[in-house]
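Action item from last week, closing it out:
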Amino acid sequence: MSTFKPLGDRIAVRPLPAEEKTSSGLYIPDTAKEKPQQGTVVAVGPGRTEDGVHVDMSVREGDRVLYGKYAGTDLVLDDEELLIMKESDVLGRLDD
């Protein structure tokens, strides 16, 4: 199994699966499914440096996050789909 460790202020996110059916019970065909905008953080980089000062990451592994529709870069690692993005692409954390 390969491990992936993001550099700088990048994170790796496992997108949540796309909705299979609507709230009214209609099934959504694959061609009409929206790209997921929520996921679970699986790896976090060390942070960034601004003006010589280290800035820690504000998200941690295991956090559920909301991100922009077209954010990040798709990556398949050991048959697992991941999304690699900068921390600034994250819109917020979702708390249960």
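Closing note: The beta strands are 10-15, 38-44, 48-50, 53-55, 64-67, 73-77, 80-86, 90-94.
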